Amino acid sequence: MQSRVLFVCCLVLIVFIAGTIVAQEDRIFIESKAFEDRQRPGVEFNHLLHYEIIDCMDCHHDYVNGENVWDMFSGKNYCSDCHTVSGDDETGLGLMQAFHEQCIGCHQEFHRRGQPTGYIMCGECHVRR
Ligand code: HEC
Ligand code: HEC
Ligand code: HEC
Ligand code: HEC
After folding, report:
1. Which residue, judged by its Cα, is nearest atom 6 of ligand 3?
2. Nearest atom within ligand 1 for CA of residue 42
3. How far apart are the C-alpha atoms of 62 and 77, rounded to whole Å?
4. Long-range CB contacts for residues 80-86, cutoff 8 Å, separation at least 24
5. Which one, of 100, 78, 92, lies nearest residue 28 by Cα?
6. Number of the ligand 4 atom closest to the C-alpha atom of 27
7. What does the alpha-carbon distance between residue 31 and residue 38 come to, in Å, rounded to a whole number?
8. What is the pLDDT of residues 8-31, one digit of tens each?
9. Ligand 2 pocket mutation, candidates 48, 52, 61, 77, criterion most atoms within 8 A of CB
10. Which of 1, 7, 29, 37 gives a 20 to 30 Å CA spacing to 113?
């Protein structure tokens, strides 16, 4: 009896843990606290749509000796974990520049290839609500 209860508990725990790993939020709202006097509203980002077509490591990185060793349990999932607003840090790239270079850079690349792509104009991403 005891072991059976334990077994069921373990099962529930495993399902729960697996669930939290799989259940990345589909849509996230990007609004970094680091921007204290923000000029634009935050940006809605469909995470799921992106990682269905793009590898995690093409967006997330954690460079050690030039190699990208990022994993989602590293606690470095937010761009502001490394990129400061001024960019006066080891990344050399300010937080806004980091977002823009990655998001807009890729959208433009897909546009050049004539493939379906995401927004490029300011007001399309920064939507006033
Ligand atoms: C592909 C989407 C995208 C486009 C297009 C885009 N941005 Fe952004 N921008 C972002 C994201 C994402 C952030 C980070 C937002 C955050 O963390 O709050 C950001 C941050 C910013 C910030 C810093 C935060 C603030 O409000 O002070 C400014 C300013 C900004 N963008 C202005 C612009 C302007 C001006 C344009 C057009 C030239 C533009 N953006 C185009 C996605 C975009
Ligand atoms: C197109 C770029 C892109 C791809 C691909 C991508 N991510 Fe993200 N991810 C982001 C951005 C941008 C954020 C928000 C960062 C911020 O707010 O500073 C984020 C946030 C996160 C977060 C923290 C927020 C949350 O929802 O828990 C986790 C964890 C994460 N990503 C894991 C992953 C994993 C795992 C994959 C691959 C299956 C992946 N990401 C693919 C860009 C991407
Ligand atoms: C663990 C720290 C860390 C995190 C988290 C991080 N970056 Fe970076 N990022 C760096 C470093 C360091 C560089 C400089 C790499 C170099 O000079 O070779 C960099 C460079 C970049 C570059 C220049 C091109 C490249 O890949 O080298 C872009 C664009 C960028 N980051 C965007 C982002 C975005 C967007 C996020 C959030 C999804 C993010 N970064 C999260 C540390 C980080
Ligand atoms: C490596 C390439 C890549 C990166 C990086 C990237 N995108 Fe996209 N994005 C795409 C592609 C491709 C599509 C079109 C997908 C489709 O329609 O099939 C898209 C579509 C979108 C759309 C419209 C679809 C929707 O409803 O969400 C938005 C908004 C968007 N991206 C925002 C962002 C933001 C914000 C970032 C940065 C945080 C970002 N993207 C980073 C490739 C990228």
Report:
1. 79
2. 18
3. 9
4. 80/32, 80/33, 80/34, 84/34, 85/34, 85/35
5. 78
6. 27
7. 9
8. 777 666 666 555 555 557 999 999
9. 77
10. 29
